[in-house]
Write a structure and sequence with these properties.
The chain has 220 residues and is mainly beta. The protein has strands spanning 2-10, 13-20, 23-29, 32-37, 47-54, 59-64, 68-70, 78-87, 92-95, 100-102, 107-116, 121-130, 139-148, 151-161, 175-182, 189-192, 196-200, 206-212. Strand 3 (23-29) and strand 4 (32-37) form a beta hairpin.
């Protein structure tokens, strides 16, 4: 199954939402949209494309009603998703869905593309857990490409689970939390609460990441 979802926000109207497939959006506040699963997706072989656009001067918050489950299909185990974010001049976006859980024997990959302007505001969080209780055989990868005013701001890639570079006898993290924040003038710092590390970006903003065995409750 292929799923497509588009959310367009502007200053002078409610967010416009169009969708087809297994993911939909519901407006739950003046500037808030919650993602809702309408079918079991992603299964192995499924593809997902989501486009979120916030026009100049607008504000949008995108959350979800529940965690997502990536599961193997009858013939394939791998699924994929592409997320495109565009935040216009003076616009702001908060993107904070519930975690993605990659169940046993499933494989899921994500590509995130972000376009910001110099006076945009962004808070984007991605959380992933390999396996439900007592499962550890899934695999997940995510890449993040963020440009600011036409120039590169961040290129970031993480892999978790069986077959990934970090999965060995010494260290095999099964969870990841990552938050991209712009603007942010704080310096880089390690040993933040929850074992997180904050990396100050040369072009402004920050990336906070943490890995571990199980996801911890998220601070709101």
């Amino acid at each position: 199954m292929h799923t497509e979802l588009c959310i367009d926000a502007s200053r002078h109207r409610s967010p416009r939402i169009t969708s087809v497939g297994g993911l939909a959006g519901r407006q739950t506040g003046p500037d808030t949209v919650h993602l809702i699963g309408t079918a079991a997706t992603p299964l192995g072989g499924d593809t997902i494309t989501v486009r979120i656009s916030v026009a100049a001067g607008a504000h949008l918050e995108v959350r979800s009603v529940a965690a997502s489950l990536a599961m193997p299909g009858a013939l394939q185990r791998h699924s994929s998703a592409q997320w495109h974010f565009e935040i216009g001049a003076g616009a702001s976006l908060v993107f904070d869905p519930e975690p993605m859980v990659v169940v046993s024997d499933a494989s899921h990959s994500v590509v995130n593309t972000v376009v910001l302007q110099e006076d945009s505001t962004l808070w984007l969080r991605e959380r992933t857990q390999i396996g439900r209780f007592d499962e550890a055989s899934g695999r997940w990868s995510s890449s993040l490409r963020c440009d600011l005013g036409g120039n590169p701001l961040l290129r970031h890639r993480v892999e978790l689970g069986e077959g990934s570079v970090a999965h060995d006898a010494l260290s095999a993290p099964l969870s990841m939390s990552s938050t991209l924040q712009y603007p942010d003038t704080r310096a880089s710092e390690v040993d933040l609460p929850g074992g997180s590390v904050r990396l100050a970006l040369a072009g402004g903003g920050s990336l906070i990441t943490s890995v571990g065995h199980r996801l911890q409750p998220a601070a709101r």
